[in-house]
Predict the 3D structure of the following.
Amino acid sequence: MIQDLLNNAEYLKLEKEYPFLSRARGKVFELEHENYIIVDLETTGLDPATHEIIEIGALKIVNLEVKDVFNTLVKPRGIVTPQIEALTGISPDMLVDQPSFSQVAQKFLQFVSGETILVCHNVDFDIPFLKQHYALLGGKNFNPTTVCTLKASRFLYPGLSSHKLKSMAQHFGIEVKNAHRALGDVETTFQLWLKLIPELRDKKGICSREDLGKITS
């Protein structure tokens, strides 16, 4: 079978020397060659209408390798509760001299611009926060193409009792560092996405950006 050939060690070795052999892959490995921005936010609560972003972490991924990093604390207008401080380790004192969202908004937009796919573990949390924050800056639209590793893990492993980021990391043997800090969770999400891409391809036939629409919650 063509898939067996493409996974053959000798073929992979020859492919590095003769790049034209990659043509045989067609769309089989398309997701491996997409550009991704892995994103995670820390916030003052769960409601994007009333709570605020206090940290943004992001990795720019090209050919499944890290090419750039975006990380900043964000000074909110409101308070950081003791519960949020205990969860994230982000104290009010840490945010006093940090930029507001309006001060980092354009730089973050530039970081995520282009034909990239935003990857989050729970898109339905992170993206509404970003949409709301950009809307408050005068109606700026934030409508990226996204993929959700939470939905992807549910799609692939419906029998698991938990699909939280920590649980999926444990399932795949991924080391978790700096949990509930934006850049730490971004790194874990990236490692999870690396595990999920071949699973989506081999088990569900999801090979391209267009195929990602088949992933449901």
Q: What stands out?
A: The two ends are 32 Å apart (CA to CA).
